[in-house]
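Incident log, entry 3
Record: C-type lectin domain-containing protein (575 residues)
Problem: checksum mismatch between cached and fresh output.
Input:
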Amino acid sequence: MSYVKTSLSLSILSLALAGCGGGDGDSSSTPSTPGPQPVDISSYTVIDGYLTNMLVFIDSNKDLRFQNGETIIGLTDAQGRVDASQINIMPDDQVVAEAITLKNSSKFPAQYQRSYTYDQDAPMNHFSDPFSLATTADNAVITPLSDIVVRLMNEQGMTEEEAKSFLLELLNKLGIDDIYQNHILNDDKVLKKVNQILLFSRMVDPDGYEKLYQELIALIIDIIQEMTAEQIEDHRFIIIPNRGPNTIAVVSAEQAALIQAQLQQQFSQPNFNFDVDFRSLFIDPDTNEDIVYFYGDQINAMGIEISQEPTDGVVSFSGSFDGSQSFDLSVMKFDISANGSRLDPKIVNFALSINGGEVSDNQKPVIQQERLEGLQWLFDSIELRQNQNISIDFETAFLFHDEENDPLKYRLQTNVPGMSFNCHVADCGTAVTFSGTPTDQLTNAWIKIDTNDGQHGPESSASSWSEVAKIDLGDITPDSNVDPRCSAYTSFSTERLNWDDAANYCASLGANLPSQGDLLQLHTDVETRSVCGWPDYHIWSNTSGGGSNYWAFNNKNYFHTTWDKSREFEVTCKR
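Fresh output:
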């Protein structure tokens, strides 16, 4: 059983009482053997692409579905990550991530019910059908393959190692030797394609997925072996067993933003009568079919008249709202494969909050700290270097929450010369590319994002904008001839330098003069690719952080000597 982590003081107090004779029983009895300890996992990541808004929990009854009373770990962020550091998760626990969709959202706690799951590979497309993915407690990456491991354990009585060996034996033909790795971070495109086809096969044929693991994986192996390298790399290209090739239909983020704004504006009128054209909402290269399906049961129950021809993507709305209302509208289109097969539906949920035609006590958008932390985590993994071109894609969607669900316009700023933003939609509310070539050395670089809901005065007024979400980029590393893949390097000098000069020289390269211990570690790492430019003779260090104790480390003879100030020497800088 799992519990939220508690303070260590209770255990210390219990030990103190026992030492003082507290408690009942014979004090000379043999101490009990400690029980199992929680696994050392700080977070879980759920991926095909990064799966956002998956509810992650400890599956106490091992049915792979969330039930009231089960321990919730949290909701995944834009990097598919959920923090598990505050939860005790035991070795025998199974951890499950379940998708939140319009069909199953009512079973979840209220704060999660409108956080619909989507894949960062197609961020505007919410999943239409519920599904879950599982893993064992000590595996930090949750994928369709980790899910099959758990199912083989639960359904066929295999151990975890037996289930992994079973899958690896099948996947060995594709050169896969680790089914638990993060295929995004490790850029393993073949493993990603296996997981992708597994997930889409499950969407199309859930019964077949549940029963035929071995047959399904064998088909997937044959499919991938016939793919070109370009097809494997293209996350939109997929071949589903028995359904043929398909370029995955996606949602037009720009069109979705325009429709969201139109719905919000029109429904806010005291009396409304308007049409919305949903036909251009989806992009599917495999078909010219323009049939979309609209679902508006919630507002239909409120007395709003809705009309739509069965095969027409234009929907008419008329009526009025009495007071404030919150509801969802859903639009769905089936993904059609190149051979005409109907695959899984693509769905967009428009979450709307209406104030009965009047705006009163309107609140400014507020930062979603979990989303901001996810963006900070993304940029923490990236180094900006002077005169080195870089391009980074990220999402601003859901960074801010607007209580009234007003359409938002985003503003992005940076203090890095040479870098700029390219917004994929006019209001910068979805995908953004941050790209360019930093031209200057800089400390404390940043990106700042704020937003405007159009309800608090003209955009030219500073008070009309929200609070600022700041992303720290660290320092812009100075230009040098050093291979950027190196984690440590050596620069040479023919000058007679003192400690301050040497330290400043390293600082000018974005590095530090290492301590004596650093030098020993650098030598230990010399056979790895993390160290570049290892010197032939002496490298220098200061062991006291200043003053007169200077040392040279001879990497051939492994000894230290005091610094002869009359000699010229090499300066070693550690990045």
